[in-house]
Amino acid sequence: MTTLNDLIKNKNILYTLMGGLVAIAILLLDISIPLGVADGVLYISLVLIALFTKNKKFIYVGAITGTLLTIIGFFLSPPGAELWQVLINRSLTILTIWTIATLCILQYGNSEKMSAVQDELELSVHQRTSELNKLNIELEKESASVQLHKDIAIAANETKGLKVTLQLCLEKICTHADWPVGHAYLLPDQTSSWLEPAKVWYLEDPIRFDIFRKISEATPFGPGMGLPGRVLVSRKPEWITDVTKDANFPRAQLAENIGVKAGFGFPLLIGKQVVGVMEFFSTKAAEPDRDMMKVMAEVGIQLGRTVERHWAEADIQNSNERLRKLYQRLEMIREEERTRIAREVHDELAQMLTTLKLELSLLDKKMVNDNAPLRNDTQMMLVLINNTIQTVKKIAMDLRPPILDDLGLHEAIIWHGSEFEKRTGIKFSFEVCSGNVELDIKRSTTLFRIFQETLTNILRHAKAKNINATMKEKDGTVTLQVNDDGIGIKSDQILDIRSLGLLGMRERALVWQGDVDIQGVNNQGTTVTINIQRV
Ligand SMILES: Nc1ncnc2c1ncn2[C@@H]1O[C@H](COP(=O)(O)OP(=O)(O)OP(=O)(O)O)[C@@H](O)[C@H]1O
Ligand SMILES: [Mg+2]
Prior knowledge:
With about 525 residues, the protein is of the alpha+beta class. The protein has helices at about 5-10, 10-30, 45-50, 55-75, 85-155, 160-175, 210-215, 225-235, 250-260, 290-365, 370-400, 400-405, 410-425, 440-460, 490-495, 500-510; strands at about 180-185, 195-205, 240, 265-270, 275-280, 425-430, 465-475, 475-485, 515-520, 525-535.
């Protein structure tokens, strides 16, 4: 039932009531005043009231009612003015009613059109705005993925270890997707078919997810097992809406206990081979997000290349390490061999020659004086044996100076320097800056051999006149510096991988966690600085 309130609310009914009352009032006025007085004009107000309804129909009703009442008034009003005056009066009233009604309807028509155009405009603006909003959201998503790709590329190119890189990537992905748990698995090597936990995590709340972390870290996954195993087999991103309800999720009970729901994993790929898997968990169940899966598949390829690079680097490092060990072993064997040969040459050959020399001088003395030609021969043989003894001693000395074993590095350097000076004419001076430098025989041998190589280089390349050498010890590091005043080594020669002599010097020093620094100044000379650790 329509209540009064509804009636009041319905403005058109109100206006109709108002119009009716006004019409009655005017009619009463009209029929009580003598005909001819221009009170019929008041019927125009019916059109004006109808105008408030903003409805064409009511304007027509107002105009028609006004017209009818004007005519009725003509018949019912008491006589007054002349008939022609009354007729003109009433006709003008009706004309005015319809002129106003027509104007109103025209105006109303225009405003209706205007509002239709406005509505249309508003609709299209609305549509456009919602389209723009949609595009904006897509753009934001797109730029977030581009940013993620960029962040992953930066992290992937970090020169730090693989685990640090994975850690950074997990953090970026978790922040991007707003997932609180991220973990990585890796194949231990290219031939393995089981994924091992890389023990690299992103945990928004480490305490809450601690048990989950510990158990995951103790669980390797084979093909098809759980989320990582599924990714391993499918080589595609995999999504689990709710891991607690998944039949193939061994950690389901654990996940239930700590409130882990949705799970998502994607492969790290080298070509078609899965070399690792990254898994992520949310605390809410979630339907697969295809966009995210697509982005992560691309990220997986990018990270696969990183794993490949790290594997290649590790391979190179391993073979470098092996080569270095091999070189060091060869050097050690060479040194032992030199020592052995030097000893044998010195102790046995020189000894035998000395005995031979003694025997020969006895023989010489036994010979009678008149056997002059024979004595000449023995004298010559004695000179020859003497020379041979000197040569043998020199060979033994060159192979390994006994002074190094007997008196130590300091004396060996002085001896070798002065021999070098005698042989080449290049002045040699040596100074020990911090008292006595104590070094074991192996380290002494290394420093001595590098020193020998340095002097050989000076003789062959430097065109130097003077050599100054200093030795000191500071904080457990022994430093031997050899400086010449020659033409100066060039930087490209220092860095040239074909400079095998320099490379050998560096490799020797590396055995004792040492290094060799070489600096050259054009026409001013070269400085070679050798550092090795004392213990
Ligand atoms: N003291 C020096 N002054 C000037 N140039 C030097 C000096 N020492 C080395 N060089 C330059 O550095 C290069 C590399 O030296 P390196 O000892 O590696 O090789 P090498 O002496 O030419 O040959 P080897 O392998 O027989 O030692 C030399 O060829 C020489 O041009
Ligand atoms: Mg050399």
